[in-house]
Amino acid sequence: MSFQVIVDFSPVNELITSLYHYINFKQHRNFSLSKDWHNSVKTELHPHFAAELEDDRLEVLHRINLLVWQCPGERTPKEFIKWLQDQPPGDLYERLAPWINNIPGNLKELRDRMVYLLSEWDVQYFQHIDPRIIEQLKDDARQKRDLISKVSSINLIEEATNGIRIEPNEMLKTVFLIPQYHCRPATILDYFESICTCLYPVKSAANDANELPWELTFVTHALADENRLKILRFLHSGMQNFSAIQSYIGLAKSTTNHHLSILRRAGLIRTHYFGSKFIHQYSLREEGLEQMQNLINAYIRNNDGGV
Q1: Which of 213, 195, 202 shows the shortest CA–CA distance to 292?
Q2: DSSP for residue 212
Q3: H or E stretch covering 55
Q4: Is 111 within a domain?
Q5: Of 174, 203, 253, 299, which has the fewest Cβ atoms less than 10 A away?
Q6: Which residues form the HTH arsR-type domain (predicted)?
Q7: In a domain, 307, yes or no
């Protein structure tokens, strides 16, 4: 069993991801762009549009990403939105049907709603972001494409996501690796029948040289807790499932999951997926500990003597 990895990126992907993060920021704790970013963006939006985005039931990410790579041309936000607007509901159904079982019947209404939201978000926010962000995402996608012929699909995904291992299974045929900035350090992983979309965080995109790298912030935070250190020591003995880890540290399920999420995003543990969005096993990622030392050294030695 094996699957194909396709590294894909267009500005439309980040347009969708940024809107998704803005709408769902309350659920996105411990993200680099958090409440301060949300409040800052909100002040720049038209009050009526900002009020519309308060509805966190809006679905703007998962299924639309299945359409982005099907759009011809350069896939700029303007081109994609125009293409989406011109798609008859029947064509949209045919484009989604191979991977989604339950397609809503009101596709025309949903299409028009998404065209409106993406258009306004593009004009009011996305066109004003630092252009270096998009350039660094494009560069990272090129680097990952160069690795396709050099490393295995599983290892390429683990490197991109800093610890997620998608194991082969009979159903999975294609994994789309898509770099993203707005939801870092999280990876947005979604399974659609034979396709998996994996939006991975690009390291230090558009960071100021004098700022603490977010990767270092998350890894030091991950180690600043006794229970997380116990989890790392427990995983040193070998791969474990969630129940075994919870039993070992003796905490509630939600608290255990919280600690595991922090360790995964810091790249200190692996999460193993076997054909679904649910994690089946966890293991220690020793290279993450080595990378931590490199991050600390790089940050300290980068000091030019200023204060």
Answers
A1: 213
A2: P
A3: none
A4: yes
A5: 253
A6: 208-307
A7: no
Token reading at 238: 């070998």
Structurally, how many domains does the chain consist of?
Answer: 2
The residue type of 69 is W
Please identify which residue in the block is written with the tokens 């360790």.
Answer: 263
187 shares a domain with 238: no
Domain range for 285 is 214-301
Q: Degrees (nearest 5) of the Cα angle 164, 10, 191? A: 35
Long-range contacts, 129-132 (Cβ 8 Å, 24+): 129/18, 130/206, 132/205, 132/206
Q: What are phi and psi of 24, to 5 degrees?
A: -105, 20
Q: Which CATH number goes with the domain that contains 296?
A: 1.10.10.10
Query: Cα(297)–Cα(98) distance, rounded to whole angstroms?
Result: 48
What is the sign of the dihedral through the CA atoms of 63, 134, 218 and 7?
positive
Specify whether the backbone of 162 is left (phi greater than 0), alpha (psi in -120 to 50) or beta. left
89: Cβ contacts below 8 Å, ≥ 6 apart: 107, 108, 111
With the C-alpha atoms ordered 93, 98, 103, 109, is the resulting torsion angle positive or negative? negative
- pLDDT by residue (tens digit) across 96-126? 998 888 888 888 998 999 999 999 999 999 9
Same domain, 156 and 50: yes
Q: Is the dihedral of CA 131, 137, 141, 144 positive or negative?
A: positive
Please state, in angstroms and rounded to a whole number, the distance separating the CA atoms of residues 252 and 258: 10
Cα torsion angle, 180, 181, 184, 185, sign: positive
Tell whether 112 and 183 lie within a shared domain: yes
- Over the chain (307 residues), the average pLDDT of each successive run of 10 is 90 95 83 88 96 74 86 94 96 91 86 94 97 95 95 94 89 94 90 91 64 78 93 94 95 94 91 78 88 79 56
Q: Is 91 in the same domain as 163? A: yes
Asked if 209 contacts 116 with a C-beta cutoff of 8 angstroms, the reply is no
